[in-house]
Each structure stands twice: as structure tokens, then as C-alpha cells.
Design goal:
This protein is an alpha/beta fold. It is 37% helix and 22% strand. A six-stranded parallel beta sheet has the order 8-7-6-9-10-11, with helices on both faces. Strand 2 and strand 3 form a beta hairpin.
Length: 231
């Protein structure tokens, strides 16, 4: 591998950004694609292959393709997927360790200091700020899942608004069908169209029938995983 491309891969991993290495299997041509640009032998790589590399930023693993009679290896160097949870509630206490076991990088946001105490969430840093302030400075990319659990529209809905403006691969909101319908009406009044609103999974989670916080957390994580691999 060319030294310049190796350095860019290391930099991408440090900054937790995905990168895709494209290598010809029959020549020395190779290039690297990240969220911003392409580097290396870009002029010698077919345009459709460069586009395939950009699409591979959203996936994990490696694949081989044949373009213009030449075979190429596309290898994605991915940071861990990220889960942003809004609402320091009982379900979050169960969901956090489950998501961490599934290798998600978890962040918890709740402006209510009485809920967001370190003793309740020992394995994750809790951000005690309003979600619209925090999420404005987070990189909500295509490897990010966002769930709102607070049951407080002043907390959940600004977070959902920020999520809908992002490339997050999953957005879920806790609440009954009736409450979710009202939530969608308010978000529509705020300017979000039907295509955007359909991105929100609500009621959240796969319909497993569970009732306890742990069972609901399982259903949420299962739906997140399903969404990640069905994109």
C-alpha cells in the first residue's frame, strides 16, 4: 500500500471516519475514498468504481468487483457504529450495555441532571445538555443511530428534528401510536415532509411483544441492527 494512503487510513481511524481502499488485483493502481474526497490514482480508476467506493463508505467489510475487464478489491475501514440515546430513563439503562456488547459506541444525552447521574449509567459518559445544542456539534453520519426515550416532547422532538436533518441510518422514538401520530403532526408543522417523517421508527423497536425495560431495549437494538444491514 502506498504510504500516503496508509497515513490517510490511520488518520480516518483516529477521527472515527470511514474510508474505502480500492486496489486493482492486476496492476498497481489504488486509491482511497473518505467522506470528503478521493486520493491516489483517481484518474486511472473508472468513474463507476469511484462511485461504488463512495457507496461502500456506508458498509462494512470487503468485496471484489469487475469493471472494464479488470478486478478490484474494495475494502472498507470502518469506525464502530454509534448510538446516541436521548433520555436517561430505565430503558436506556438496559439498552446501553446491550449496545456496547454489540460494539456500538454509545452516547447518552439528557438535560435533566436529576436523571443523568453517573451512578445510574456507570459505563457511559452522560452529556447533561439540551439535545439540540449537543447534536448541532456532533457528526451525525451514516453510521449513527439515534433513539429518543425521554417521553418529554421538549427534549425528544428537538432531537428528532436534528436527526432528520442528518444522515443517521436509524431514528427511533419511544411512545404509543397515538402519541407518535401527534408527534408527527408537530414535526410536519415544523417543516418536515412525509418522506422525512417516514424515517422515524415509531412506536420504536421490533414488535416482539415485550413489556419490561430490558425487553423493550432488546426490541430497539434488534431494529437498529436490522436497519443497519438492510440499507
Amino acid at each position: 500500500m502506498k504510504r500516503e494512503l496508509l497515513q490517510r487510513i490511520v488518520a480516518a481511524q483516529v477521527s472515527k471516519q470511514p474510508a474505502v481502499l480500492i486496489r486493482s488485483l492486476t496492476s498497481t493502481r489504488q486509491c482511497l475514498i473518505d467522506e470528503n474526497d478521493a486520493y491516489g490514482d483517481t484518474e486511472d480508476i473508472p468513474a463507476e468504481l469511484l462511485q461504488g467506493g463512495r457507496e461502500a463508505l456506508r458498509r462494512d467489510g470487503a468485496s471484489t468487483v469487475e469493471v472494464a475487464g479488470e478486478r478490484y478489491l474494495l475494502q472498507t475501514f470502518s469506525p464502530p457504529p454509534r448510538l446516541i440515546i436521548v433520555g436517561a430513563v430505565h430503558i436506556a439503562q438496559q439498552l446501553i450495555p446491550m449496545a456496547q456488547m454489540a460494539d456500538y459506541d454509545v452516547q447518552l444525552i439528557d438535560p435533566r441532571a436529576a436523571f443523568a447521574v453517573a451512578g445510574r449509567f456507570p459505563s457511559v459518559d452522560v452529556i447533561i445538555e439540551w439535545p439540540q445544542e449537543v447534536m448541532a456539534r456532533l457528526s451525525l453520519d451514516s453510521r449513527t443511530a439515534i433513539v429518543t426515550l425521554s417521553h418529554d416532547r421538549k427534549i425528544d422532538e428537538p432531537a428528532l428534528g436534528a436527526a432528520l436533518k442528518s444522515d443517521a441510518f436509524y431514528i427511533g422514538a419511544l411512545g404509543s401510536r397515538k402519541n407518535h401520530a401527534r408527534r408527527l403532526e408537530r414535526l410536519a408543522a415544523a417543516g418536515f415532509d412525509d418522506n422525512a417523517l417516514q424515517r422515524i421508527a415509531g412506536p420504536i423497536g421490533l414488535p416482539l411483544g415485550g413489556q419490561s425495560p430490558a425487553e423493550i431495549a432488546v426490541a430497539i437494538l434488534a431494529q437498529i441492527i436490522q436497519s443497519r444491514y438492510r440499507r
